[in-house]
Design a protein that fits this description.
This protein is an alpha+beta fold. The protein has 2 helices and 3 strands; from the N terminus they run βββαα. The protein has helices spanning 46-52, 58-73, and strands at residues 8-14, 24-32, 37-42. Strand 2 (24-32) and strand 3 form a beta hairpin.
């Protein structure tokens, strides 16, 4: 019988205006310590972000999201 492993995850969100309580899910991080597994997938819906916050600094947000992937890769 295969051994079961606990996988944990965290949703990565972009929160353009905290006071309005709005956010956009931009990715997910998945982790399993016993298997030594850590992976991040990012997919930002820029059109939706700009609909909520037209002056959003898209390039800066892309750079921050890319850092999640870079950290996960080690």
């Amino acid at each position: 019988m295969p051994e079961n492993h606990l996988f944990e995850y965290a949703v990565i969100r972009v929160v353009p205006r905290v006071e309005r309580g709005e956010f956009i899910n931009a990715g997910v991080a998945v982790f399993c310590k016993p298997k030594g597994f850590l992976q991040v997938k990012i997919q930002l819906d820029e059109a939706r972000l700009l609909a909520l916050f037209p002056q959003a600094p898209i390039e800066e947000i892309r750079a921050h999201l890319a850092s999640f992937e870079a950290i996960a890769l080690g």
